[in-house]
Design goal:
The complex is a heterodimer of chains A (about 200) and B (about 800). Chain A is about 30% helix and about 15% strand. Chain A is α+β, with helices and mostly antiparallel strands and about 200 residues long. In chain A, helix 2 (about 85-95) crosses helix 5. The longest helix of chain B is centred in the last third of the chain and has 28 residues, at about 525-555. The chains are: A alpha+beta (about 200), B alpha/beta (about 800).
Chain lengths: ~200, ~800
Amino acid sequence: MKSRLSLSVNGEAHDVLVPVHKTLLEVLREDLGLIGTKHGCELGECGTCTVLVDGEPVLSCLALPADLAGREILTVEGMADGGRLHPLQQAFAELGAAQCGYCTPGILVTAKALLADRPNPTRQAIKEALAGNLCRCTGYTKILDAVELAALRMGQNGLMGQGGFIAPTANQTGQGGLTSPIVGRRRPGEGAPTANPI
Amino acid sequence: MNKQFTVVGQPLPKIDAWAKVVGETKYADDLVLPRMAYGRLLRSPHGHALIRSIDVSRARELAGVYAVITAADLPRVKFGILPVSQDEEALCSEKVRMVGDAVAAVAAVDEETAERACRLIEVAYEPLPALMSIEEALARPEVRIHEYGDGPNVHKNVALQFGDVEAAFAASDLVREDVFFYEGNTHLPMEQHAAVAHATPDGKLTLWSSTQTPHYVHRLLPRILDMPAAHIRVIAAPVGGGFGGKLDPFAHEIAACRLSQLTGRPVKIACSREEVFYIHRGRHPVLMWIKTGFTKAGDITGCHLKTWLDGGAYGSYGVASTFYTGVINPVTYKMPVYKFEGARVFTNKPPCGPKRGHGTPQPRFALECQLDKAAEQLGLDPAEMRTRILAEPYTKTANHLTVTTIGLGECIDRVVDASGWREKRAKPRGQGPRRRGVGIAASAYMTGAGTAIYWNSMPHSGVVLRADRSGCVAVLCGATDIGQGSDSILAYLPAEVLGIDPKDVHVHPADTSLTPVDLGSYSSRVTLMCGMAAIQAAGRLRDVIAKAVARKLEVDPGELAFRDRKVGVPDQWERAVTFAQAVELAEAMHGVLAFAGSYAPPKRAGKYKGGGVGPSPCYSYSACVVELSVDEETGGVELHDVWIAHDIGRALNPLLVEGQVEGSVYMGIGEALMEGQVFREGLHKQPSMLDYKSPTTLETPDIHTLLVETDDPEGPFGAKEAGQGPLLPVPPAIANAIYHAVGVRCDEVPITPEMILKGLELLRKGKPARVGPEKIPLFKFKEPVAVESAFGQPADAVAARPFQSC
């Protein structure tokens, strides 16, 4: 039994014909080709499939599209503004916050919702906001660093009202020569290795 | 090699980071092919049972079902990742050995139909007793899980002896015997395993899979599917987390291949989270008895270690795992004589195998906790004691392993300084129910296994590097990026050699039809081995380009520098040609510019049976201090800070190294305090991410990473491994910190609040406050292979490698 649903995803209207029991996760991935949203458990346990519905994080593996008519859904594919990455995406790439990258889309949109609510979150607030998103690669450290860096840049650019986008860096576009990106929160003396010739 | 680096040492983003942050990376389950069918596996609900019959007729009749297969549809061969343990079937034919063993597979129009069809398959089982522990497996020899091995339900029984440990103990000032248990746990990668197989009408087959080792899968499939290797192509999709859990050939991969051959359609099988818990191949539960002798000054006089591994239902990497519980401990401290006995036992649980640290975190936990106890008895500071007894660089260990550089002394000094160790150890442990403590541990790990899993004299890693007139360089290598950044390393190192930007390098990894073999992402081997191959290939390209540019500029090739995308003589840099022009000159002179690089580790296996496990080109070292609080009322542990120093040799990209170290620390925390793959009444107790507890942002403390560089002559530009070693000191450092906080010795992980409360209760009663295993199995180990200790002998020649000429 299929039904026709109208969904607004990343600012675009879609009509889909799907069985009513199909989850938002399945519709996004299988019917709309938005594979950026991942699945880690399909039981609402890991946060990997998080998307935003009207700006709030929602586990798409537990959400039914039939309930979402008229609501605005945002996936990782909708974060960048054309070719311009969202500051969170930029910071995650620059700081190594994505290792295998599988949890990254869910964490990015969750962090986006946090920064919309709290432009200058404390590290503890970031931890609490991301506590429902498991990551097995990073130990979370660089993820927290990246959210802090993005918040800092969005504040500095005074662009919160305009979505907080920043221009692509030379490193990303390849216009520069040998590049050395900005690295945030490298604690003095901790990042620089010392030589110990034996 | 010139040590003025331009790319090496820079905190560059990974080359695949941009695709990952926009959601474009295509993992195996993101692949969709025209006409693709979806598969599901039917798995056993019994831990141990004979298969009397399988009736698939009702499933085949279901609308939308394309094919249903059982063991009868596959060649009757058993396979396994190790040549000595060929004990698996993709679909079980006569017997299931665990809950989750696959018995049939379906391909259908969609996953839901495939699932429905699975439920229509009727399997008649005759249940057998399921053996769920080492004790049970040894106590019931009449119930045989497998017909092979070193005894009833004993997969492997090994014993190695290097010198007279009893004489060493007799001459010691202190001899300690301790028993430890390290619970099994699982990798829990965020990505569930998935595979897409496409058999084409020309009789060929392509498999895309979330695998860490496309080469070994490619090597095993021909026998499993009875078709020529030359007609099979295996491509590793970007892997959404591996940690060792995607290193075997799996039932879903094989079933997808066979179903594709039968249906003439591409077939995808994506495993559910519950299935991933059954696929497992994770950390072995290991029971350990360790006896070590010490002098008054804290020197180790000798060590005798016994390990019992609960292997689960199949061999997997278990023979290697068994050796690994014994062979790596001696590379950390001076250990003049050493004896190791180990046994791996089959049980009716998902098979254990390689998880981050493969077999070594367990004995590391035992040794480091025991050192803490010995230090206390001897009145020594546990940090200073370790610093005093470090192994000597460029020597051999008792068990004939060659060690090169050792940065562990500096690692210990740096975590001691950064953590304020001395002040915190001296301070009282706090007032009220919350007691603070600090603990320390150290460790070592190999940078790549010195031998392949099958005997051969070929390269362990190969790179083909092709330069194009555009100035772009393509790198082809079988290495598999599982998030650790191997694709990026393959861009950075040629860019460094050729003086170009990593962005100018296009990396094509992990495709058995296109890329030279790399053995896979395991044993922390990839950066070193594919890195060395990439440097060799880039060096060969550089030589040819230099010859052509030298002729053009009428200079000697040796005068040329490669930097800033130019090639020229440094003091006539205005005459330098661009890299793209240099490639044109070279291509005109030489023809197509494609060069290969190969790497195989130095042959240093000890000349005794079993000597092939443990040798590595070089070893990384880590030291860790943990600060935590223990709540004496609840037994709860709160971690505050972890300081970890890691001897990385050289940080090719400090950002990536830190990421590996932080991830290792995190995983060690999970193993120490919450993660356990445990069973109840024959069933997995918690095959879900909600019930299998792993640390979230809230349980993960601040991790302070300190990198120590030793510039190892064996590694690419001096680099060693980072992906596994830093996990090892974390669990014992936590256990030692808990003792410092509340005086309770937890000789078992995961350490639960119940264990701490039990210890505190013992303490109140004036009894020894130790919680952990009380007894060891009655078990007869083999007569040991007795070899003289090689302790202190000079290292074998460094950096003498095959494949240097051609």
